[in-house]
Amino acid sequence: MKRESHLPLVLKHYVNGGWTTSATTGVSVNPSDLDEPIGEYARADARMVDAAVDSASAAWREWSRAGAARRARALDAIGSELHARRAELGCLLAREQGKTLPEAIDEVVHAGQVFRAFAEEAVHHSSEPLGVVAVITPWSFPLAIPAAKIAAALSAGNCVVFKPAELVSGCAWALADIIGRSGLPAGVFNLVLGSGRVVGARLVANEMVRAVSFTGSVTTGTSVLRASAARQIKVDLDTGGHGALIVLNDANVSTAVDAAIEGAYGLNGQRHAASSKLIVEQGIRHAFIEAMLTRLSALRIDHALKTGTNIGPVSNDSQLQRNLDTVAMAIKEGAELIHGGRAIERETRGYFMEPALLLAKPEMQITREDIFGPVAVVLAADDYAHALDLANRTASGLPAPCAGLCTTSLKHARHFRRHSHSHSHSHSHRITVDRPTTVTVGVSR
Ligand code: NAD
Predict the structure, then answer these.
(1) What is the rounded CA–CA span in Å between residue 370 and residue 365?
(2) What interhelical angle do 169-180 and 86-97 show, nearest 10?
(3) Which residue's CA lies nearest to atom 15 of ligand 1?
(4) Where does residue 297 rank: exposed (0-12), middle (13-18), buried (19+ CB within 10 A)?
(5) How far is ligand 1, taken at its centre, from the CA of residue 200, in Å?
(6) What is the CATH number of domain 9-238?
(7) Which of 72, 231, 328, 356 would be 341's cystine partner, CB 3.0–4.6 Å?
(8) CB 241 within 8 A of CB 401
């Protein structure tokens, strides 16, 4: 593939309406091509975090009293610019995070829609603003997750200090650039780049921060929850989990395989709602596995910007290593690897991995753990009741974020909608019947 030349970006913090830098920097690289830097980003220290919180705090009085129309105008401007620049921003997102270009453009469009939806929300609903809200986000959805948190906070009249995952500093910078031009008063929105240990921890500890909106791993989420609880501030937490897809004997095999490939391997499985447990009734098991193997062999894993790529690279080296270790550990525990599961080389140096499919048992570690990669297991179910029980079992005891069922039986579909213990979020709970044969219950990402 011809390498396009993109100059590395210079990524700064956005504090009190202006760009500012730090003595320490880091580099974000393209996971499809490790020889291509995306940008050099500033890494804040605790003093920079405090300066951002101070500026947000100083801006809050004016912003909390700003009329709904003013808030709506700013949010709408952000949403419109995201939408208008979807191709260019999608390209940046694909280069920095490793999603395929169509997946990345979809994410930009979604982020734009979220800002516009909250522009409406500002006009139609009034909620009590809290003050300075810390927004802390992971690398998996560099625009969609920050969009939901930032738009919700701004629409209610809060001020924001945004701390993205370091790996996607370029996307965060691009979003801050758009927000900075939307007409918000200086200090209402701030971006601080850098590590979780320094920037994230300091944000949660700063006493002017009145609420934390966090998405990330269970481990980090637990420490954010502890620190927030110690200060008795509001916290909105989205952490790990994984989804399940049940395939019953009466399902259409090709529909089931479409749902399983998209659910388990779409976005490289790097979403907490990925269907990494494929629970298959005995009578269809052989046909389903054969069809899965055929489809998996035809998938093209390559550079995220290459036309025809179905799956881009894993986003970063530690996630790739974790995926490979998970597969190795599962084999040791007795699971049977029937496809992929290894790192592969392509024309460019990148974190490419062949999606893995394993035959496993419910009690195995791989079935219980949040994988967050292109790794799925097939579990055997005796009948619908057994399948539902397997889908509802989670290691943490929390409901699964998403669950699906492939069947042609309306009776089972109806029962599943009522009895699947999948997660429900007040803002994103979704129950859809996409096709007569597939029911999905849960959240969208
Ligand atoms: P992570 O927990 O390592 O980091 C998330 C954010 O927290 C980053 O910005 C990080 O810098 C920051 N952080 C790290 N230490 C911190 C600390 N001590 N205090 C405050 N902030 C700190 O997660 P990640 O590796 O970026 O993302 C992958 C994880 O996110 C997966 O575990 C996945 O399940 C989860 N995730 C959940 C959802 C959801 O909606 N529930 C969506 C996407 C990803």
Answers:
(1) 10
(2) 150
(3) 196
(4) exposed
(5) 10
(6) 3.40.605.10
(7) 356
(8) yes
163 lines ligand 1 (CB under 6 A): yes
How is residue 164 annotated by DSSP? -
> Average pLDDT, whole number, for the chain?
92
Residue 1: Cβ within 10 Å count = 14
- List the beta bridge partners of residue 215: 238
CB of 197 within 6 A of ligand 1: the answer is yes
How many angstroms separate the CA atoms of 269 and 293, rounded?
17
The encoded tokens of residue 199 equal: 């920037």
Q: Which of 265, 240, 273 is nearest to 404 (CA)?
A: 273
**Largest pairwise CA distance in the chain:** 65
Question: Class assignment of domain 244-428?
Answer: alpha beta
Q: Select from 37, 41, 35 the least CA-distant residue to 14.
A: 41
Report the DSSP pairing between strands 375-381 and 277-281. parallel
- What confidence tier does 430 reach under pLDDT thresholds 50, 70, 90? very low
**CA–CA–CA angle 95, 152, 421 (5° rounding):** 85
pTM for this prediction: 0.93
- pLDDT digits over 391-402, tens only? 998 766 666 778
240 CB near ligand 1 (under 6 Å): yes
Report phi then psi at 162, rounded to 5: -105, 125
The answer, yes or no, to whether any atom of ligand 1 lies below 6 A from the CB of 312, is no
Equal CATH topology for 9-238 and 244-428: no
19-46 pLDDT, tens digit each: 999 999 999 999 999 999 999 999 999 9
The residue ranges of every structural domain in the chain are 9-238, 244-428
